[in-house]
Amino acid sequence: MVTFVDRVTLHLRAGKGGNGCVSVRREKFKPLAGPDGGNGGNGGDVVLVADPQVTTLLSYHHSPHRSAGNGGFGMGDNRSGAAGEHLELLVPVGTVVKDADGTPLVDLVEPGTRFIVAPGGRGGLGNAALASPKRKAPGFALLGTPGWEGDVLLELKTVADVALVGFPSAGKSSLIAAVSAARPKIADYPFTTLHPNLGVVEAGDVRFTVADVPGLIEGASEGRGLGLEFLRHVERCSVLVHVLDCATLDPGRDPLTDLDVIVAELAAYPVPDGQTPLLERPQVVVLNKVDVPEARDLADLVRPDLEARGYRVFEISTVSREGLRPLSFALGELVAAHRAEQAAAPAPERVVIRPTGADRAFDVRVEGGTWGNIYRILGEKPERWVQQTDFTNDEAVGYLADRLDRIGVDDALYRAGATPGATVVIGAGDGVIFDWQPALSSAAELMTAPRGTDPRLYQGGRRTTSERREKYHEQMDAKAQARAELEAERRAEQHGWDVEEDA
Q1: Is 291 part of any known ligand binding site?
Q2: Is residue 349 in some structural domain?
Q3: pLDDT band at residue 172, thresholds of 50, 70 and 90?
Q4: Is the domain of 316 the same as that of 193?
């Protein structure tokens, strides 16, 4: 049964925004007292929260589909819809969030950090909010926009100060159990540790965490054993501890060759940009199992060679607890020095985000098609406005045309070479397709028409008296001709005449 998961794909869906309401207030002696449609509620967000009490992504492995609440619809009497309920997902500290393409979005390394991974949709405005001195009684409201929907990858990287690395059965789990309150699985066969274990160690005034990762073997970088799958959990460590088994019974193995193999595998692991390579960090060598007489003799033999390489060497026994206290205080000193170095480091450069100007709110792309060019409009505002438009309401369509014209869509289409009747698509993929008519983008507020309609959408204006008279005469002449033809057919049937020959 799976008990530890450090990588999972979440399928998220944020809440949809509620639609705005079209309503007219009715009072005594005032049957049409003005618009009073309320706004729709915003959809709920999906929020990731770094919680130190959570240590695995197992719950999301079993149920990866998560959704937030939808916003309520607006109502009459200026009543707004309820906002959708936010969904908070607790993740371990040290979780890296990536998009579906593998691009990192955020690194949750601080407890309590919150990140809105899937923002909810916006609620639509009701006709009361859309009213203005020029458009006093809107016959339409805006629709709510859908929330963000897609996949994100969660990858756990353990946040620890010290990492224990070494061959399988070298005694790493026994060491972390001896110096902390952690209780990992310990057995006399290789690859007992199948997932990282964390332990907290106190050495004087310094308190630090130790991570025990599954054992490495030669060829791990090529996929042998557990490979480098779990080395992501040592990326954040400030000190590496090489645990070497001095009592191994495997032929061809000794502490020096084991160290060479482990160092080669660590060198093959690429760390993210901006981080110190693993082999450039402080390293300590621990010669374990010196409670065995032969192991102590071997430790005394290889210690000068290890010190000649520049390593600080400690001889320990997790059974007799020999050498554990000096090791703990030495690791505490290294961790304290690293923390002081980080505190003295200059603060990272402040990132200033400036909003884009109105002239860069959208892009027009010309795409070749079978029946001519297609002009695609991409931008956050135009795409959102299309989602908010009720295309069954003519007045709402005219309002959309005015909004697009205000940000310069018509001018941009002219510059791109579009002509009236050209195919225009707003949004990526299929989007919303329509035939571009620049005449539709002018002053909907100044036009009088029945509520819910826009006279610009109808070709042709009101007919004059002479045009109506001419149309009436044409209809009368057509009716007289039809009656004459019917009468001729009736007489031909009575007398048996051949209408064509008689003609």
Answers
A1: yes
A2: no
A3: confident
A4: yes
